[in-house]
Amino acid sequence: MMTDSRFFRRENGTYDTVCLQIDGVQTHARATDTVAAALLAFGPAPTRTTGISQSPRTPFCMMGACFDCLVTIDGRPNQQACMITVQDGMCITHQAGFRPLEEPHDG
Amino acid sequence: MAKPDLIIIGAGPAGMAAAATAANGGLKVHLLDDQPAAGGQVYRNITRNQDRLTHLGPEYTKGIPLADALDHPNITHVAGAAVWRIDDTPTVWYSLHGKSHAIHADHVLIATGAQERPVPFAGWTLPGVMPAGAAQILMKSSDLLPKDAVLAGSGPLLYLIAVQMIEAGQPPVAMVETQTPQMMMRAVRHLPRALLDRQQIFKGLAMLRKIRAARIPRYTAAHSFKAQIQDDLLDFEFTSKGETHHLKCALVLSHQGIIPATHLTRSAGIPHKWHKAQQCWHPDHDTEGRTARPGLWVAGDSAGILGADAARAQGVITANAIICAVRGLRPSIASHVNAHAINHRNRAQAIRAFLDAAYAVPPEINTPPDDTILCRCEEITAGTIRQAIHDGATELRHLKTATRIGMGPCQGRQCDLSLTHMLAAQTQRPIATVGMPRARSPVRPVSLGEIAALEQTD
Ligand code: FES
Questions:
Q1: Ligand 1 neighbour A66 (Cβ under 6 A)
Q2: What CATH class is the domain B367-434?
Q3: What positions does the domain FAD/NAD(P)-binding occupy (chain B) (predicted)?
Q4: Would the pLDDT of B399 be above 70?
């Protein structure tokens, strides 16, 4: 199985990092990463499956124009991972299917 | 919050240049941008990277002075603001950290830039298939380099990304180019005018030399793209010069140029025109960026694709026109102040016709085979759309109701163009008469709770 990320992180200098949990696994990311970048750096696995044919998806456009990066963050579904910066202690989980976007959430 | 003279949406080259120009002219400017730092996509993360990522090349660092100039007492830069509505007063509604705000000014400049043209082909929804520009965003924002990647498609950005990958020591495993000799032939007649921007041509040639020197395998006149998963890797199939090829790779990065991001301009009721050479809709505007909607202006790539240098110039030109409008000055005054910027914009315009023709969109992208998914959100194929047209749908809205195409969370950003092309082709009408799909606010995801809370506080 392909377990390595499709991306390679350049190491040039020191960076602030944060700790994250991705699908139950502890990992870290650069403090300035978007959640989508952190997910792609973490591994190649699908981050969402579609509601209609359960097909696997990963973040696609990285600029807010496709919504393939929807994941659940700290229990809140439908979070647009490419538009959100990581935060220390964030819990990111794969999202199965699709929930209506207008679902109100607290916070 | 004190009422600003001007609200600018988007902190890319056009928005940043316009903000600095307007602020220096004494206007109070509110600059709303959905990213955590200024730069837009072209100079993304420039405020943190500065000139440290040398593999990105000298064009990228042009963003440094633009971003620095935002440090001005007349500019309020609101980072992380997702604008979801502009009404005709004009009031701008945006969401910031889960709360919505409404703010009014007599002038609103929309400088929301571009998005990549969606490139539907069989397998383009698979993990590992991404727009090349998305990979470039990862290079700029997170210092992530694509591994074992095939670059596929066409356009100046594809070559720039190839060079950036080479300079970073992770060259693409191959380039699969859709450009045909016929496209080049058609472009030749635009060459004399393009030579007005000789510098740009030399830069292009230098990029091609670097790609050749790196000995990257190149396939030209490629078509019939298909991606499949095989042993966990991608199997990328295509035909070039009559031969079918298969490449094993981790990533297929596709690209067919960029198109204006028009959801905001469309939802604001600004009329749009079909641009034949660029194969996309442009918001209609005059040379200073004025639209038919009073107080609404456009600049940069969201007004029509001309690239970052022209976007910066157009930001200056439009800001000067807005200063004249606010101060009640004769518009002719602006044309003197603008001489330098106009020169820049004209140069970018001179080369554009050549680029549009040389890197034309291959027809199979516009009307793909039946099994290709057009709408990524609702998973609607080209075949389903053909069937719906066959069953009597003659308008875009018929197709939306019949199939739900374009009704998912991306609101058609990934399928609007394909849908329009398909309907035009199947009903043998020119695109301009098929019309443009509607965009409705909120054009960004915002919860009902957030909207309700705003209405209460207002
Ligand atoms: S990756 Fe496209 S919207 Fe996030």
A1: yes
A2: mainly alpha
A3: 5-315
A4: yes
